[in-house]
Batch of 4 targets.
Target 1
Amino acid sequence: MYEVKSRTRKINGVDVETWEREIIDANLLSVEVGTNGYQGGDTGHGCRTYIRISDEGSTDINARVIENRYGDTTGIEITLGGDAELSTIIEAFKFITKVLEEGQEAAL
C-alpha cells in the first residue's frame, strides 16, 4: 500500500484540500491533486481544481505550456519516455481521477 498525504493549498484565493502520493517503478513520480468541487458556475463562483505531477527520480518527463498569440495559456503538453513512465503515469491519472470524482461527489 502507498502513503497518501493531505494538505490545504490556496488556489487563486480559495482553499482547496489536496491529496498527494508517490508512484514507484523504475522511476518515481509524485502526484498531488484536489478540488473544492462544484460551486455553481464559472471561476468567479469559486470552483478550483489543482493537479501537479512531478519527477522525484529518473522520470523521463517533459512539459510545455501552449499559448495563443496573445500569450494566454490554452493548454499543456506532457511527454514521457519509457515503459516505467507509461506505467507510473497511468497510475497517476487513476489517482487524479479518483480524487477528483470523490471531490465532485462531496460537493453535490
Target 2
Amino acid sequence: MTTAASPTSPTFLDLLRGAERANRSLLCVGLDPDPARFPAGLKGDASRIYDFCAAIVDATADLAIAFKPQIAYFAAHRAEDQLERLVAHVRRAAPQVPVILDAKRGDIGSTAGQYAIEAFERYGADAVTLSPFMGFDSVEPYLRYHGKGAFLLCRTSNPGGGDLQAQRLASVDGQPRVYEHVARLAQGPWNTNGQLGLVVGATYPAEIEQVRQLAPTLPLLIPGVGAQGGDAAATVRAGWRADAPIAVNSSRAILYASSGEDFAAAARREAGRTRDALRAAASGG
C-alpha cells in the first residue's frame, strides 16, 4: 500500500507544472484499457492489461503532462492489482509525470473518506476526479491529504452533460448555470488545500472560456480531444494560461493508434502529434 504524500513532498500542482515544463506538454494520456481492442498477441486477454498500459507509458513518458487511468476499465476485468502495478510503474518510468485517477467518486463524507484511501493510499494517485453534486462534505475528505489534487466535474464533454450542468440557479448574483456555480465554489471556499481543479470538456470551448474566467487560477482537466472530436487549438485558446495549467486528455486515439505489433510506436507518434498541436496553440501558432 502506498502512503500519502508528506508535507515535504511535491504537491500535485508542483508535479503538473514541472511535467509541463520538462516535457513541454499539455497532453494528458488517458489509460482506458479495453482488451477487446488490444493488438494481436494481447487481444482479449485481460491478464495483459498491465503489459499493454505499461508499454503505452514507456512510449509516451516524455510527451505527457499527466497519465489518467480510468478505474472502470480495470475494475470491470478484476484488474485492480494491475492498476496498482501500473501506477508503481509510472513512478519508475516517469517520476516527473503525475497520475490522475479517473474515478468520478461522489458520496457522503464517511464513504468519501474510504474512497480517498483507495485513490491516494491503495493506488498512490496524485489526483482524483470527483462528482461535486453531493456538496462540500463529499469532497473535503480528499482535501485532507497534503498535496493531493482533486478535479471536480464541472462542464463535461458528454452530450447529456447539459441536462443538469447548464441549468440555471436562482441566486442573488443573477442566474448562474450549475457549472458556473461549481467553478466559483472551486475557485473560492472549497479549495481548502490549494489543489482543487475542474473537469471541462473540449467539445464545449465557449464553456471552457467561461469557466476559466470564473476560475482563473485552477488547473483544468479537459477530456474530449481525439476520438470525441474536440478541437485542440480552440481548447487551448479557451483554457490555457501561463500561470494556470491545463491537462488536455486523449485516450482512445493514442491507445489504439495501431492494432498491430507497432501499437506502442504508433501511440507515441499520435501522442507526439497531439502534444505538438497543443504546444503550437499555446504559443499562438
Target 3
Amino acid sequence: MFDAIVFAVLTCGLVPRSALEIDDASQTRIDKIANLIGECRWGIHDISRVELNEHGLPRFNMPLELGLFLGAKRFGGSGQRGKTCLVLDSDPFRFQRFISDIAGQDVTPHGGEIGRVITAIRNWLSGSLPESEPGIPGGLEIARWFRRFQDDLPALCQELRIEVHELTFTDNVRIMSKWLCASNRQRRHEGAMAARP
C-alpha cells in the first residue's frame, strides 16, 4: 500500500517525502516527521494502519502524524495555512470508533484496495495542483502502470545488483522515477507511431 501511495504521488508530478528518507540517528523520529510536515504543503495520512500488536494494543502513529499536520495548518504561520491533506481509511466510518474527534473531516475509504488508494490520491491531487500542471492520467491507468512496475521491479533490481527486500525508501523513489520516465518516453513514441499516416 505504501509503495502504491509513493508511486501515485510521483505519477502526479510531486516528490514523495517520508521520515524513512532521513537516516540521521541524532534526530528523533518525531522530529523528522515534524520537520517534513513543516516543509510539505500536501499530506497523505492512511489511518487504517492501527492494527493491534502482540500485546493487543493499537498503533497510533498515523493518527498522531495526522494530528501534527492538522496542528501545523491551524496554528502555524501563514506558510502553513495553505496545507491540504488526504485522510484515508479502510472503511468509511471505522475511524469514528478510535478517533472520533475528526468526525467532521472528509475521510476517503479504500477498502484495502491498491487501485482505490491510487485513484483517491490522483483525484485529490488533480483538484489540488495548480492549473498550470499538465493533465494527470486517471486512477485506473496509474494503477495499471503500478502493476507493470511491480512486475518489472525484480529485473530492475537485478540490473542494479540489489535485492527487492533491500531497497530503501530513497532507492525505491529513484527506481520508480526512472521507470516512469522510461515508460513516458515509450508511450510518447508509441503515440507518435500511431499518429503517422
Target 4
Amino acid sequence: MKEHQIITIGRELGSGGREIAIKLSEELKIPFYDKEILDNAAQKSGYSKEIFERHDEKPTSSFLYALAMGGSAYGHFYQRPLLLDLYLAQFETIRRLAGEGPGIFIGRCADYVLNDQEHILNVFVHADMQDRVKRTMNKHGIGEKQAEDMCVRSDKDRASYYNYYSDHQWGDGRHYDLCINTSKIDPERAVKLIIECL
C-alpha cells in the first residue's frame, strides 16, 4: 500500500459499505472517517454536531428549502445559506484529514472532494434491494416495508446531495475505480478485493 493511500467508499444504505470500511480499516491499520467527519467539521466551524447530523447527506436543491435557509422570494440571498456552510465545512475537513495521512472516507462526496489526490481508490458498494432490505431490517429491528422505505429514501437523499455538490452522478460506475455488489461478493471478500486493487 502507498504511504499516503486514500480510499473513498460511496454506498447504498443496507449494502454493507460501512462494514467493509471498518474491516478495511482494521486490516490496513489506517483510520476511517464517517460520522467523524461531522464531529471534526462541527469543532472547526462553530456549528453544532446536531446541525451537521440533521442535514447529513440530505437533498439541497429545493426552492422552498433555500428560502427557509436564508433566501428571498426573488432568489436573492441576504447571507450564505446554512447548507452551503455545512458542505464547505465538511469539504475542508475531508481535505484536512486526507492531508494528515492515509485514511478511508465514507460518503459525503469524498471521492469528488479528493479527486486531485495522487494515491486514491474510489469504491462504490451496492446490492440488490431485497438484500439491502434484509440487512436494514436486522440492523434497525424494523419491518420489511419500513426498511424498504428507508433504503429508497436514502438513495434519493444521497443522490440529490451528491449530484448537487459534484458534477458526477451518484452511483455511476464510470466515476469509481471499483464497484462491488455485496449480493454477489460478501464484505470479507470485498475487503480482499480492495486490498488487491491497492
